[in-house]
Design brief:
Distance between the termini: 10 Å
Radius of gyration: 11 Å
Largest sheet: 2 strands, antiparallel
Bound molecules: zinc ion
Order of helices and strands: HEEH
Strand order of the largest sheet: 1-2
Number of helices: 2
Oligomer: single chain
Number of domains: 1
Amino acid sequence: MSIHVDEDLFPAVETLTAEQRRGAACVWCEATPQPGIDDVDLGARHATRTGPAWFPRGCRRCCYGRDDQ
Ligand SMILES: [Zn+2]
């Protein structure tokens, strides 16, 4: 499962935890979705001059407003 989310909708990357940056936790609520089960891939962000690459993921509740599929 993967959707595109505009960069502006993410919290500032420098406020995220290490888990959120590597995609282990939802970028919005810090829930820890199960990979391949209820996580939502938000698309890897490439490294820039100012920051390393990171891999935003969300939980279904934050991405779709509900827990079911
Ligand atoms: Zn969430």
